[in-house]
UniProtKB/TrEMBL annotation, chain A:
<feature type="transmembrane region" description="Helical">
    <location>
        <begin position="288"/>
        <end position="316"/>
    </location>
</feature>
<keyword id="KW-0813">Transport</keyword>
<keyword id="KW-0812">Transmembrane</keyword>
<keyword id="KW-1133">Transmembrane helix</keyword>
<dbReference type="InterPro" id="IPR000515">
    <property type="entry name" value="MetI-like"/>
</dbReference>
<dbReference type="Pfam" id="PF00528">
    <property type="entry name" value="BPD_transp_1"/>
</dbReference>
<feature type="transmembrane region" description="Helical">
    <location>
        <begin position="20"/>
        <end position="40"/>
    </location>
</feature>
<feature type="transmembrane region" description="Helical">
    <location>
        <begin position="358"/>
        <end position="383"/>
    </location>
</feature>
<feature type="domain" description="ABC transmembrane type-1">
    <location>
        <begin position="244"/>
        <end position="432"/>
    </location>
</feature>
Automatic annotation (TrEMBL), chain B:
<keyword id="KW-0813">Transport</keyword>
<dbReference type="GO" id="GO:0016887">
    <property type="term" value="F:ATP hydrolysis activity"/>
</dbReference>
<dbReference type="InterPro" id="IPR013563">
    <property type="entry name" value="Oligopep_ABC_C"/>
</dbReference>
<feature type="domain" description="ABC transporter">
    <location>
        <begin position="15"/>
        <end position="266"/>
    </location>
</feature>
<dbReference type="InterPro" id="IPR003439">
    <property type="entry name" value="ABC_transporter-like_ATP-bd"/>
</dbReference>
<dbReference type="Pfam" id="PF00005">
    <property type="entry name" value="ABC_tran"/>
</dbReference>
<dbReference type="GO" id="GO:0005524">
    <property type="term" value="F:ATP binding"/>
</dbReference>
<dbReference type="InterPro" id="IPR017871">
    <property type="entry name" value="ABC_transporter-like_CS"/>
</dbReference>
<dbReference type="GO" id="GO:0015833">
    <property type="term" value="P:peptide transport"/>
</dbReference>
Length: 446, 334
């Protein structure tokens, strides 16, 4: 039985270290894919990858934390300082209240933060409150950050304050506010406890103010963030199941259909075979990538449509010729004639007697075929034909390219997805080549 | 349905072949007809229940094509094969399948005849599965019984083996077991021993003969070896260029050959006699005739030492009966 053959193959396969390593890599990727699908459900991942407000607390283009520490850096992580209701000093006056909200934090990193934003919420106020911001440094300086009439959802982009930049001697606020006045040419961080104090005049008896200061870091998580503040780890993780599913479905789809069609042609011969061969020859000269680009441009870049086109164009592929060449001598084998003589149906002969004969030779080809489809999907995404909503490795590369990641020094943005793609290719190739040695009789005794 | 029980006994022939022609068209570019191979070209005969017959002839005389036509693997171009009085050509799909269960096939190359990726149990189960024996224990019982019958043991060990683990003789026993597992009434054996070691040939031939007599099977041997035929067949048909040129009971034909071609075949037999070592034999020269352009008249006439100009090269010989029970298609017996 074919099962026994495979079992014997497995025993032999275990002797190849490359097969075990390949299997290890594939198992790792599968586990990551499984974990991702369970931990971050599909709709949630799509929603998050769409970007926007949900990511406002994340830094832009932050390096992975471990990478910075590995390089010996001490870049800050993001600090989020929520206001503490207990520390709010409140004084009443006719027609309103006066609130003094301190937002204090310790800053001890050697490097400056990347950006600063203050998020204020002043909902249900009859009249817009007024806030005056002042910045207290550890060495006792008091720098005014100006006054703001607060919208219900108010955002003070401290880093964007041109006037403040001018007052700080040309330094961007997120640098100037943290700089040691003693340092001259190159600003250095003054470590210690910083405070942002909000003096708010509220024209309401009840309504409250909610303040959150975000001191954005320069490093974030294990994979960093992109230009839209999105965590790259989300796309890298979700890219795994998408890549594996795409590769596997495309490989299974094309291999099985190709195999069955080739076997049909060989079995029925005559015009069936001729038709299949001519279709294959026409299809073989059709260029896959330009057709995919065309479909992507004219219809949609949905990954399912792309998958469908890849499989459909893969049906009458060069594989038909190979399988036909392998099946032709099998068709004439005496055991096939014996099967006809005891009354086996055409279907049974094709599916049970002819195809199993070449299946062992086919499995290694099939395994090495998977990463080519993974790469194809990534290439499409890099060309801008990736699924518009799905986070994938190719999309990350595409974003990195459009944002000139390498020019700007964001190597991690390119390296991480490229590494995952290479790992996938390596895993399947190592397993596939070892399987080829085991299952392909012509390579057996080499 | 074909029901052999209704025609039990020897009076009604089991298999009748009537003016059978099996031609193959040679095509160029897949459609242009460039010639026709007359593999079987006008064969008529009748086989009785439980009869063992042999078809003898050199390579390319059409005996294997005849076997395949009888098995329903080739569609006859002309003429018909009747089994139990029913023409094969007129059978529907289900009846044809039933016919296939009634006729077993033993091939020449035992290793090629067994699917290399299936074990013996599965190989023998396949025909049963195809013919709707769904009960696993029933299948197992029949497989074991048939393995006992072909003397292939120990059964438990053999069942799990793959063809390449068996010797040639054992493989041929599996092939015979597969032909028998559907309990056929007729076995067609196409050169069943020609690819086996000389040491096991006799065993396999004895096995076939024993099974044939025990099961009262009709046995059709296809062979090119006249030396063993006497012990395993009751009647011999000598074939030449797609036709039967001579037929007779085995002893009659071997002791009193009539047709010049049969004489030539017999004289070519190796005879383990020391006197023969230095004696030159008279063997007719020439090659087997082309089946695409068969010779006119008697097909043997270009090689025949007794060919009569103006007759043999022009008119096809009809069947003569030079001795009782002995049919020979040769103008010599006009």
């Amino acid at each position: 039985m074919i099962i026994e053959r495979l079992r014997a193959g497995w025993v032999e396969l275990r002797r190849y270290p490359s097969a075990l390593m390949g299997l290890g890599i594939i198992a790792g990727l599968l586990m990551l894919a499984l974990y991702t699908v369970i931990a971050i459900p599909y709709p949630q991942a799509l929603e998050a990858w769409r970007g926007g407000e949900a990511w406002r607390m994340h830094p832009v283009n932050a390096e992975p934390l471990w990478l910075d520490r590995l390089k010996g850096g001490d870049a800050p992580s993001t600090l989020i300082i929520e206001h503490d209701a207990e520390e709010v000093e409140e004084t009443m006056f006719t027609g309103g209240r006066r609130l003094r909200i301190p937002l204090a934090f310790d800053f001890g990193y050697a490097d400056f933060p990347g950006e600063m934003n203050l998020f204020l919420r002043a909902e249900d106020h009859a009249e817009a409150p007024f806030a005056r911001l002042s910045w207290l440094t550890p060495d006792g300086r008091d720098i005014s950050l100006g006054g703001h009439r607060l919208q219900p959802r108010h955002r003070v982009s401290i880093s964007q304050d041109r006037e403040l930049t001018r007052r700080l001697g040309g330094l961007a606020p997120h640098i100037g506010l943290f700089a040691d006045p003693a340092s001259d040419a190159v600003p250095e961080v003054l470590p210690g406890r910083y405070r942002l104090v909000l003096d708010v005049v509220v024209f309401d008896e009840q309504a409250d103010i909610d303040a959150t200061l975000v001191v954005y870091g320069r490093v974030h998580g294990i994979a960093g963030t992109d230009h839209q503040r999105r965590e790259l780890s989300l796309a890298l993780m979700w890219g795994t199941p998408v890549a594996l599913a795409f590769g596997l479905i495309a490989a299974v789809g094309t291999t099985l259909t190709t195999l069955v069609i080739a076997a049909m042609g060989v079995w029925y011969r005559g015009w069936v075979d001729a038709l299949i061969q001519r279709l294959t020859e026409v299809n073989m000269i059709l260029p896959l990538l330009p057709i995919l680009v065309m479909v992507g441009t004219l219809y949609s870049t949905s990954i399912w449509l792309m998958l469908g086109v890849v499989v459909v164009l893969g049906i009458f592929s060069a594989g038909i010729k190979t399988y036909r060449a392998m099946l032709l001598p099998i068709r004439e084998a005496p055991y096939i004639e014996a099967a006809r003589a005891y009354g086996a149906s055409d279907m049974r002969i094709v599916l049970r007697y002819m195809i199993p004969r070449i299946l062992p030779v086919l499995i290694p080809t099939f395994v090495t075929l998977i990463p080519t489809f993974v790469f194809l999907e990534a290439s499409l995404a890099v060309l801008g034909l990736g699924d518009p909503v799905l986070p994938t490795w190719g999309k990350v590369l595409n974003d990195a390219q459009t944002q000139s990641a390498l020019y700007n020094g964001y190597t991690y943005w390119v390296v991480a997805p490229a590494l995952l793609l290479m790992l996938t290719g390596l895993g399947f190739a190592m397993l596939g080549f070892a399987m080829d040695r085991v299952f392909n009789p012509r390579l057996r005794n080499l | 349905m074909i029901d052999s029980a209704t025609s039990a006994g020897r009076r009604v022939p089991l298999l009748e072949v009537d003016d059978l022609h099996t031609w193959f068209e040679l095509r160029q570019w897949g459609f242009r007809r460039v010639g026709t191979v007359h593999a079987v070209d006008g064969v008529s005969l009748a086989l009785a229940h439980g009869e063992a017959v042999a078809f003898v002839g050199e390579s390319g005389c059409g005996k294997s094509s005849l076997a395949r036509t009888l098995l329903g693997l080739h569609r006859p171009t002309q003429g018909e094969v009747r089994f139990d009085g029913q023409a094969l050509a007129g059978l529907g799909k289900a009846d044809m399948k039933a016919y296939r269960a009634k006729v077993g096939y033993v091939q020449q190359d035992p290793f090629g005849a067994l699917p290399p990726f299936l074990d013996v149990r599965r190989i023998l189960a396949e025909p049963l599965i195809v013919h709707g024996v769904t009960d696993r224990t029933e299948r197992e019982r029949r497989i074991r019984a048939v393995l006992e019958e072909v003397r292939l043991g120990p059964v438990d060990e053999v069942l799990g083996k793959f063809p390449h683990m068996l010797s040639g003789g054992q493989q041929q026993r599996v092939v015979i077991a597969r032909a028998l597992v559907l309990e056929p009434v007729m076995i067609i054996a196409d050169e069943p021993v020609s690819m086996l070691d000389a040491s096991v040939r006799v065993e396999i031939l004895d096995l076939l003969r024993r099974i044939q007599s025990e099961r009262e099977l009709t046995l059709v041997f296809i062979t090119h070896d006249l030396s063993t035929v006497r012990h395993y067949a009751e009647r011999i048909f000598v074939m030449y260029a797609g036709r039967v040129v001579e037929s007779a009971p085995v002893d009659e034909l071997l002791d009193h050959p009539q047709h010049p071609y049969t004489l030539a075949l017999l004289s070519a037999l190796s005879d383990p006699d020391a006197d023969n070592a230095l004696r030159l034999r008279e063997v007719p020269g020439g090659e087997p005739p082309s089946l695409i352009h068969p010779p006119s008249g008697c097909r043997f006439h270009p090689r025949c030492p007794q060919a009569m100009a103006g007759l043999c090269d022009r008119d096809e010989p009809i069947e003569f009966t030079p001795r009782p029970g002995h049919v020979s298609a040769c103008w010599l017996y006009q």
